[in-house]
Amino acid sequence: AQSVAQPEDQVNVAEGNPLTVKCTYSVSGNPYLFWYVQYPNRGLQFLLKYITGDNLVKGSYGFEAEFNKSQTSFHLKKPSALVSDSALYFCAVRDYGNNRLAFGKGNQVVVIP
Amino acid sequence: GAGVSQSPSNKVTEKGKDVELRCDPISGHTALYWYRQSLGQGLEFLIYFQGNSAPDKSGLPSDRFSAERTGGSVSTLTIQRTQQEDSAVYLCASSLGQREQYFGPGTRLTVT
Predict the structure, then answer these.
(1) Among A79, A94, B33, B34, which is least packed, fewest CB within 10 Å?
(2) Which candidate from A41, A43, A103 shows the least CB-CB separation from B42?
(3) B17 to each of A8, B11, B14, B65, B109, how far by Cα in Å?
(4) How far apart are CA A16 and CA B110, in angstroms?
(5) What percent of chain A has pLDDT over 90?
């Protein structure tokens, strides 16, 4: 079965500092990995994905994520956090050939001005 | 272009009543998904449609839940005899084949 772990409940970071949101995954085959962001009372917005190719993927709003197969991780990063980045972030995974996404519990990111 | 839309945005219903939730996917997206988001359970997969057929409905929590999709477009999720534990935000998503899924704003269901 596919699963995702997001070990931290909340990530606090000062504005302008680097932001990292951690994600590890478990799948039986090759993973398809995704990050989504959710603002209050809104649906999930797609940020970026890893399917194959370069381990460092770049996405929307200056976010990037690094795929590490040996550590089964897909951490989300942003070099310089903005107050507007404060939101709930979800990591998701699916197996090749499987269409359903398995989500982590989500991480609340709080960027402090 | 237009994104995924869902209606209603909020629904309050009495325990035991039936409810219907609607999803309009992005035009041309062949795949459609329903998920449920609740505080205790996080984000859970409910059902997946490819065209009008549902090859994976394994996430539906009970036989009170059903869904259909017509014309390869609009989908309706129906919950019969609602229970308080059905209270959640119901999210719909669509995708072009197996590409990334795009989510609607959700329907917040409250069962009193």
Answers:
(1) A79
(2) A103
(3) 38, 12, 6, 13, 12
(4) 39
(5) 84
DSSP state of B74: -
Element (H, E) at A16: none
Whether B59 sits inside 8 A of A100 (CB atoms) is yes
Q: What is the mean pLDDT of each run of 10 residues along chain B (112 residues)?
A: 91 98 96 93 93 94 96 96 97 92 96 96
Residue type, A40: P
CA dist B108 and B91 (Å) reads 9
Beta carbons of A106 and B91 less than 8 Å apart: no
Pick from B105, B110, B76, B80: nearest CA to B19:
B80
**Strand B88-95 to strand B102-103: parallel, antiparallel, or no bridges (unpaired)?**
antiparallel
Residue indicated by tokens 């976010």: A63
The pLDDT value given to residue A52: 87
